[in-house]
Design goal:
Largest sheet: none
Number of strands: 0
Radius of gyration: 17 Å
């Protein structure tokens, strides 16, 4: 991911929350809503890539420290 643009995960999440609020308001013209949706998709993909990279780093650190592999877990809705 060295050639890929690094993202600020926290800022991207805040930006996504703002986009969702704008889209949910229903006050945007269709063309603007489509552009916001596209921007949201790009932010989501960037966040997913950043989280995947962080997970890989954690796995490397655990292995180098002689730790156990990470286990998958399910997130339950509150």
């Amino acid at each position: 991911m060295a050639a890929a643009k690094k993202i600020n995960l926290e800022k991207s999440l805040v930006d996504l929350e703002e986009l969702v609020a704008e889209l949910e308001s229903g006050d945007l013209p269709l063309e603007t809503a489509m552009k916001k949706f596209e921007e949201g998709i790009k932010l989501t993909r960037g966040c997913q890539a950043a989280l995947k990279e962080a997970e890989q780093k954690v796995q490397i650190l655990l292995k180098s420290a002689g730790g156990e592999d990470l286990e998958d877990f399910e997130v339950s809705d509150p």
